Amino acid sequence: MTKNMHTFDDGARLAARLAGDVADKLAEAVAEKGAASIAVSGGSTPKAFFRALSKADIDWEKVTITLVDERFVPEDSPRSNHKLVKENLLLGPAAAARFIPLYQNVKTAEEAAEIVTNKVSATSLPFDVVVLGMGTDGHTASFFPGGDTLGRALDMKTPAGVMSMHAEGAGEARLTFTFSSLENAGLLVLHIEGREKMDVLEKALAGDDETEMPIRAVLSRATSPVNIYWAP
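Now predict its structure.
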């Protein structure tokens, strides 16, 4: 598995470079296919990257944005990744993009997963860009250690699409794209910041148990090269 490490002096420089690289890939896809798709992650780490990307001079009307994963909470919840993207990425020029939320106003995460899979699969897969994050427990997307559907989510034979995930470390029920949906992106990024996250990455690289640290599936089995962007 090819891994490319991009190291920056600080988060601001990382955000600017990552936004430029992602914008270039999206513009390339629009030029080649007439459309582009990107799946992004939540948390506090990508805020500066989102804001920089939102200003990119590309044909946003031809770009579809969705989330790598989501908590099964409404858009107005402070824990919603949709809310994070709306407030930090879907601004200025990027407001013209098509956004596909993972949360749906239905009773269960399982129902929502089926609805979103039907919306996304036909138009956006494979993704041109996927930007992953990583937790200190070694999870990425909503591939949590101990997750009830972790084995199926990481199995390459599981079809591309969205599925539910319940795990003690996850809090709410989760919605997540399967590994097979993410691992072949045109540009596959792991965006991490801080010494603690680098320590977690180094531990992941030193072992092979994907159930202990699911990020290992991406690092060892992704078809596309993994581009790691890190700042202290």
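The mean pLDDT is 97.
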